[in-house]
Amino acid sequence: MDPLVAAIDQGTSSTRFLVFNAKTAKLISHHQVEINQSFPKEGWVEEDPKEIMQSVYECMERTCEKLCQLNIDVSNIKAVGVTNQRETTLVWDKETGEPLYNAIVWLDLRTQSTVERLINKHKTGLPISTYFSAVKLRWLLDNVDEVRQAVLSERAMFGTVDSWIIWCLTGGRKGGVHCTDVSNASRTMLFNIHTMDWDPELCRYGTGCFLLRNTGTKPVMSDHGLLTTVAYKLGKDEPACYALEGSVAIAGAVVRWLKDNMGIVQSSSEIEILAAAAGTSYGCYFVPAFSGLYAPYWEPSARGIICGLTQFTNRNHLAFAALEAVCFQTREILDAMNLDSGVPLTQLQVDGGMTSNRLLMQLQADILCIPVVRPSMSETTALGAAMAAGAAEGVEVWSLSPGHLPHVTSEKYEPQINCDESEFRFARWKKAVQKAMNWETSEPCCNSNGTSMLIS
């Protein structure tokens, strides 16, 4: 049989293990497990590191069972790649193997006071934001005694989710490998993207939508609110390739919010049915700034807002507005990328769970006024990790040369509305964003004496 390559895809809301044919890129088998999130305080988002690892083990075991049922020998798997939720921060004890605190998720806002003390962004290519790992690590050092004591006794290990997974899978406290790659390292705020190494000066600091544009072997610094990040480095002697990236905090998570918090839909797939029944938001605009606004605004104090409601508005219109919100946020990032690069994008390639929503894909093409291309096999993030692992030195079962890359079929969505209508809807969305950014988070309440006071 052809050699197989697998990928661990550990995301914010679920973990998956996928096995691909290294010759054809065909997905052979996979398994998925959802991840629980906890919200101890407003703006805080945490996950259990042990649950993350257990989900990895379960996905691997179940996928291997499925391979056996297909009479496929699991020894044909020649390498395993890892793709993961970035910026999410963990600290664990290297002697016991125990996490010293829950994983602080990239969406978490608790570090805003730390962010306000930091101003220099140039070495990392990143704006100072609660988004990145270094400020989360600083919070752990300042607020968790177990972390502080482990650092003093040189028992603490810090890492993003990829580091935790690899350390556990390679032996853990019995010789586990503590490592990361340059693309994850570049999102910590501790890595100098120009020297491609950890920066001593920077180290003395103490479920989303992401749009990336490859800028080649030289970093392009953004003037329009985007991140300059390391896209990949395929080999020790190969040059790093950089990218401009725009990050949307709440994209697919808005569907989960409509389902779990509001009860408007019973399943994630139902939102397409409701939105299609409306066919329009009827002037309703939704800015899901639950964790502030990321690119291109970087405004952590922004709050979610739904405006333009009338007596006629129903849940179908809200569902449509939620899908439009994902498209409008993507449009803002794409506009910034076009300004930074000077070369307008002619089509948008997409992947991920939300791309199964055909109405969303059409809305995205309409809002951007350019075609949207969706691969028929939507797991291209995991496929990329598997390809990189299969092409690694010493494995070499997957060639990355253009002539050997497998053909992936795709579906193209062409814009179906005129650009004037798109611009009108986008302008209305921008007005809603300004309201979200200027939202007053303080509210009056009454104390035990019945007198009014202001709290924040």
TrEMBL record:
Signal peptide: none
One term of GO molecular function: glycerol kinase activity
Any one GO CC term of the record: mitochondrion
All copies of domain Carbohydrate kinase FGGY N-terminal, residue ranges: 5-205
Keyword Kinase in annotation: yes
GO process terms (BP): glycerol catabolic process; glycerol-3-phosphate biosynthetic process; triglyceride metabolic process
Keywords linked to the UniProt accession: ATP-binding, Glycerol metabolism, Kinase, Nucleotide-binding, Transferase
Enzyme class: transferase
InterPro entries linked: ATPase_NBD (IPR043129), Carb_kinase_FGGY (IPR000577), Carb_kinase_FGGY_CS (IPR018483), FGGY_N (IPR018484), GK1-3_metazoan-type (IPR042018)
Keyword ATP-binding in record: yes
EC number of this enzyme: 2.7.1.30
Pathway linked to the protein: Polyol metabolism; glycerol degradation via glycerol kinase pathway; sn-glycerol 3-phosphate from glycerol: step 1/1
Stated family: Belongs to the FGGY kinase family.
PANTHER family: GLYCEROL KINASE, SUGAR KINASE
Protein name: glycerol kinase
Organism, as annotated: Seriola lalandi dorsalis
